[in-house]
Amino acid sequence: MSAAKLDARQEILERIHHAAGGAGDRAAEYAAIPREYRREGGMAPEARLELFAARLYEYGASVYRCTAAQIADAVAQALTQRRRTAIVVSHGVPASWLPDGFEFVEDNDLSYAALDQSNGVLTGCEAAVAFTGTIILRHGPGQPRRAVTLVPDYHLCVVRAQQIVETLPEAIRRVEEFRAAPLTTISGPSATSDIEMTRVKGVHGPRTLDVVLVL
Fold first, then answer.
1. Contact present, 127 and 159 (Cβ < 8 Å)
2. Neighbours of 188 (CB within 10 A)
3. DSSP string for residues in 133-202
4. What CA–CA distance (Å, rounded) separates 48 from 171?
5. What is the gyration radius of the CA atoms in the chain, in angstroms?
6. Measuring CA to CA, which residue among 91, 73, 97, 98 is closest to residue 149?
7. 167: closest CA among 50, 45, 38?
C-alpha cells in the first residue's frame, strides 16, 4: 500500500476515533456548540397547561382534567366514554389510579398477540412538552415496556402538571439522567400518510390516545 493511501486511511480512522469520543474533551466541545434557539420557557403554569391541552385536542386526543384524588374517576370516565371494560396496566401504575367496575390486566410479559387483542393500556409518563403536545415515556425496570405502549390500539396516559415543561430543550434536560434508557415520544395518536396523502391511523402505535391531566 502506498504512503498516500496509508496517510488517507490513518486520517479517516482518526476522524472516526475523534467523532466517537476517543480524542479531545467531548464535554467541552459539546458545551461550546452555539445554541441560539430558545432553551427556557416563560409561560405561566396555567398557560402552559392550556397550551399542552390545546395541542392534544389538535391531534385528536381527548383530555380529562382532574386532581390527584380524582385520577381513578377520570380513568373510569375515559374508559366508559371509549366503551372499554378491560385494559392492560403497565408497570409503575399505582393501584389508586384503578377504579372499581373494570378489569385491569397486569403486564407480566404479555405476548404481542395478547397485547394486540387487548382493549388498550394505561400508563403514566416521564415528562411532557406543552409547545409540541408531546408525551415522553421511559422504559425499563418499574416502567412500561415499549411494546405495551405501541401494540395496543388504545393508550390512556396519566400526565401530572408538574411533569409538563414548555419547550423541548427543557424536556431533554429533564430526562437526561435516563439517557441510557429507551424513550418513546408521543405527539397524539399514531398516524401517517402515504405518497397519495391518504392518512392512516394506528400504523406505528395506538390509533386512539386519551390523556388524564392531573392539575
1. no
2. 19
3. TEEEEE-STTS--HHHHHSSSEEEEEEEGGGEESSHHHHHHHTGGGTTS-EEEE-SS-EEE-TT--EEES
4. 13
5. 22
6. 91
7. 38
Rounded to the nearest 10°, the torsion over CA 50, 130, 120, 74 is -30
**pTM as predicted:** 0.81
Where are the chain's structural domains?
1-33, 41-214
Instruction: Kindly report, residue by residue over 111-145, the tens digit of the pLDDT.
Output: 999 999 999 999 999 999 999 999 999 998 778 99
Closest CA to 45 of 175, 212, 164: 164
Kindly report the CATH class assigned to 41-214. Answer: alpha beta
> How far apart are the C-alpha atoms of 116 and 97, rounded to whole Å?
23
Q: What is the pLDDT of residues 42-56, one digit of tens each?
A: 899 999 999 999 999
